[in-house]
Amino acid sequence: MSAQAPSRVILVRARSFVPNPATAADNAFQSEVPEGQSVQDTSQRALAEMDAVAQALRDVGVTVHVFADDDHTRPDSVFPNNWLSTHAGGYVAVYPMYASNRRHERRTDVLEMLKSTYRVQAIVDYSGLEPDGIFLEGTGAMVLDHVSRVAYTAVSHRADTHVLERFCTDFNYEPMAFEAVDSEGVPVYHTNVMACVGTDVALVALELIRDEARREQVRQRLSINGRRVVELTEQQVREFAGNAVELRGRTPEGRKRYVMAMSGRARRSLRPDQVEAIEASCEIVAVDIPTIELAGGSVRCMIAGIHLDPRTDRVPEPTATAEAIDESPRTADGQDLADQRPA
Fold it and tell me: Region annotation Disordered: residue ranges (predicted)?
């Protein structure tokens, strides 16, 4: 069993989707909606892309919990990894968000599902730091090595080092903070657009870490347990190649399989040698999500991994069926029964 790659995930199916104007100023990856494309059309395209990601994960044996979101005031709710993370031992973290219109993405129904379906010992809520202007946007701001217990963090106003230290103390991680900027000197707004840590492979744009000594420290720390480091270019980062996540699924025969989920755009940006390095330890699952990527995030941002043990005392749902949920995904309330293979 890999501590790094979760076999269960949370996705949010947002009915109303547009790139968030409140985050455009510091998110260099964000783009405008094509001229003439209506909000309704943009939302419908995004919905189809969300469903495609969910189905692609189910197809490789990952259990997917889908939460519907009908609130048009939450344009970035499709990215739940910014407000929520889960951790072995039964711990959940809730994070302070930079953009005020993102703060009500935090949902009690998601937390209640986790408590009822998985073993949760404690929820640590850092959102009370928002009035003080202190933010740490979850596994967007941090890329976590759950095996070696390291929190890789590109420092920005979305990733404050004070709350990073607090998180690391509470959850027993080693903070590894660094400054990362692009070729124009613009800070990387979220670490997970430039780095992905898997069990045996890591993707990282080391060239964006300008301090050479720190860059080498990050390289060595990533590879200390034999993990292979695949270096990304700045251009590949702009194609979202760093915004990937390793997950654990199952083959139709029930055998474990490890997959690296990313967007089709990200996959196409990789060189053959990089693909070979990734596929030495896990297969690539790529889904095209061009509409969602307008918001400045990609597949990794859409996925909140569940690193919790399932409850064995949970009463099975007697009425829901896989067929009903698959045919009408907008009715999903967080319990996706389309794939309930044992972990």
Answer: 311-343
Cβ contact 218:197 at 8 Å? no
Name the 3-class secondary structure at 310. Answer: strand
Using only C-alpha atoms, what is the Rg of the chain?
19
Higher-pLDDT residue of 315, 2: 2
- Pairing mode, strands 195-197 and 8-14: unpaired
* CA-CA-CA-CA torsion sign (32, 34, 40, 43): negative
pLDDT of residue 21: 73
Residue 230: φ, ψ to 5° = -100, 115
- For residue 121, give the DSSP letter: -
The residues near 87 (Cβ < 8 Å, ≥ 6 apart) are 93, 146, 171, 307, 308
Flag whether pLDDT at 313 surpasses 70. Answer: yes
- For residues 277 and 228, the answer to whether their CB atoms sit within 8 Å is yes
Closest CA to 137 of 111, 160, 118: 160
Residue 52, C-beta contacts closer than 8 angstroms, at least 6 positions apart: 287, 288, 289
All domains in the chain, ordered by first residue: 8-326 (3.75.10.10)
Q: What is the residue-averaged pLDDT of the chain?
A: 89
pLDDT tens digits for 138-148?
999 999 999 99
The set of residues, in sequence order, having a beta carbon less than 8 Å from that of 230 and lying 6+ positions away, is 201, 202, 203, 204, 274, 277, 278
Global confidence as pTM: 0.89
User: How many of the other CB atoms lie within 10 Å of CB of 226?
Assistant: 6
| Residue 286 β-bridge partners | 262
